[in-house]
Amino acid sequence: MSGTDQAFSQLAALVSPIGRELLDRLARLDVTPETELHVGALLRREYPTELVTAALGQHELRRRAQQKFTRAQQMYFTRAGLEQATAEVIARHRAMRFAGALRVADLCCGIGGDLVALAPGREVVAVDRDPLHLRMAELNADAYGVGAAVTAVHADVREVELNSVDAVFVDPARRARGHRMRAGDSEPPLSWSTSLVNRVEAVGIKAAPGIARDAVPGGWEVEFIADRRDLKEAALWSPALAAGTSRATILPQGHVLLPLPGDGVEHRDPGEFLLDPNPAVTRAGLVEDLARSLGAWKIDAQIAFLSSDQPLCTPFARTLQVLDSGPWDQKALRPRLRALDIGSVDIRRRGLAGDVEDLHRQLKLRGTQRATLVMTRVDDRPWALICAPTSHSAGSAG
């Protein structure tokens, strides 16, 4: 039996009434790495060994998937499929761009992470050349109650007819044979995905957050998406769906920052508060736009830190109160920290070289307070800021 046949056989067993019963039973048990062997031994007294082995593997994947999907306990996964699947909160946000489309093609649908968000209120053609993932996508659509809206097509996406759809979403594979491809590579290539606009005007593409901006055609929008402060991915939108050239989106609330008109931003020494922009803002090239929207300034032309003399509340940056600020002098750091009763520091380095672990060892702090030590540059001068968190920042989570 081939590997594909064996995988299908395992899935069929898990989908059967006895397989579903076993999976439901596992969901009610406290299965941990320490108890898995004991639980497995008990279950093998009642169920076939092969089924128990498959169910335990699927149960572990479902447990991990709870970080991405609210209905993970009813879904089916492979390890690779789960790793590549879009989290539900991102998929739902992205699906809103297709609000006007009644029939959408989901190309390279995988196990259906985007599919379950695209399907409500419209028809979706789900296409993938991996028959196991395609079958899981159908089952996962059923788990979300949208299976009737899905037509599954087992094919290479480059051979699929698109005349009957209003829009296309494509998630090119960035892994091959279990390994991540080189930065910028995907299958199909990005150039093929963007060329879909010659067949369908409304196209959305999932991309890595490190995508090179010069790889994006003119007229397309690049959206960088973060879940709180964790930069997750980028999305490319064709001119028919674009609302500008770039944007930063912060989930789960869905805060959006767009380019703002205006002159350059002032550069000067740090004030009483330091703002650390969300990585989505930085990747979108919107640090100065954020500064203009807040009335803040930059502390260096090349460094993505902003400053203010007022505590600013924004979902697009973490705000820190500056306790001490001055040129970098490593020998003077200990007395500066000791004077503030600092016993532990979270070191943030941006624009200034240095061994963070070695610095931690050399400081030998004994105070009672915790602070953030920022290693950076101010007007191209090495600089150190000792900062404390502030409740004024809506971007402080994560």
Write the layout of secondary structure elements.
Layout: H1 3-15, H2 17-28, H3 36-43, H4 49-65, H5 79-84, H6 88-95, E1 103-107, H7 115-118, E2 123-128, H8 131-143, E3 150-154, E4 167-170, E5 175-176, E6 179-180, H9 190-194, E7 202-207, E8 221-227, E9 230-237, E10 246-251, E11 255-257, E12 273-277, H10 279-283, H11 287-294, E13 297-298, E14 306-308, E15 317-327, H12 330-339, E16 342-349, H13 356-363, E17 369-378, E18 381-389
Parallel strand pairs: 1-2, 1-4, 2-3, 4-7, 8-10, 16-17
Antiparallel strand pairs: 5-6, 7-9, 8-9, 10-11, 12-14, 12-15, 13-14, 15-18, 17-18
Helix pairs in contact: 1-2, 1-4, 2-4
Model description:
With 398 residues, the chain is α/β, with parallel strands linked by helices. It has three domains: 3-65, no CATH class; 82-256, Vaccinia Virus protein VP39 (Rossmann fold, 3-Layer(aba) Sandwich); 273-389. The chain is built from 13 helices and 18 strands. A nine-stranded mixed sheet has the order 3-2-1-4-7-9-8-10-11. Strands 13-14-12-15-18-17-16 form a seven-stranded mixed sheet. The model has no long low-confidence stretch (mean pLDDT 93).
> Reading side by side through the largest sheet, how are the strands ordered?
3-2-1-4-7-9-8-10-11
Please indicate the percent range of residues in DSSP E strands (runs of 2 or more): 25-35%
Number of helices: 13
| Structural shape | globular
List unreliable stretches of 5+ residues: none
Give the domain tally: 3
**Termini separation:** 46 Å
**Looking at the chains present, what oligomeric state does this protein adopt?**
single chain
CATH fold naming of the largest domain: Rossmann fold
CATH class of the largest domain, named Alpha Beta
The structural class is: alpha/beta
How many beta-strand runs? Answer: 18
Major beta sheet, specifics?
A: 9 strands, mixed
The CATH architecture of the largest domain can be given as: 3-Layer(aba) Sandwich
CA-atom Rg in angstroms: 25 Å
Overall average residue pLDDT: 93
The percentage helix is 25-40%
The CATH superfamily title of the largest domain:
Vaccinia Virus protein VP39
